[in-house]
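Researcher: Next entry: Universal stress protein UspA-related nucleotide-binding protein (Archaeoglobus sulfaticallidus PM70-1).
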Amino acid sequence: MTSVFNKILIPTDFSDYSRKTIECGREFADLGAEEIVLLHIGLYDPFILSLARMSVDEYVEKIKEKAENELKELAGIVEEKGLKVRTIFLATYTDPAEEIVRISEEEGVDLILIGSKGHGWLKAKLIGGTSESVARLSKVPVLITKFQVEEKDGEKYCRLTFERLLDRVLFTFDKPEISEKALKILEEFSRVGKVFLVHVVEKRNESEIEEEIREYGDFFDGIANAEWKVLWGNPVNEILNYARETKSSLIVVGKKERKLGKVADSLLRHSEIPIMILNK
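Model: Predicted structure:
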């Protein structure tokens, strides 16, 4: 059976964070994914190169050989799961987020899987950075991984905060309807793990709250193989608390076109577990 995530793009900067992201990407083989595209973007500044009296072609050739060797090594991680792998190296001086989205469209991928941090990960570079921009610009779902950064013997490393990425997935809803694409994703995730559905009612009068709870209860009852809950309070706080309560491994939240919205943006900032952004 063909997966809704048949072809996946994973950008990498060869950091420990992106390597862990690639390891997570192997899980999609369990859903029927067939191909992973590994992308490395080599950034350069023409002005800096001119000061160093080095041509663009000379610099690109220098970094290309090293990048292709590292891409080949990372491809082996994915091939162990029986997935087909393609590697792409791109040198550019433009915005990497725009290049990632452009390549995702050219390749016809179904998902972009990207780490929330890269070589600048110790600085917690996410919001305003590449990952957030990709999530905002992309027309396909974007899954942003998050890992615990720890120190041992003076070395920094990433630790998984979950056993399996797709083990316990929490879907958030802000209205009682679901797109055909989102329903397919929900159904696929329910085949390999536990699925939770949640809607948060913001502060209103008692009669409106009761009506909304009944409306969402009827909606959620129509979705098989999932536990659901309607909560009352601040959406971001309640979603994060419920994710901790259910020991969720992934939060799925929607966006409108190229706008993340307040809830999705805040979840990206504050969640300690991975976030998947879907177009509503």
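Model: Note for the record: The chain has two domains: 7-148, 168-279.
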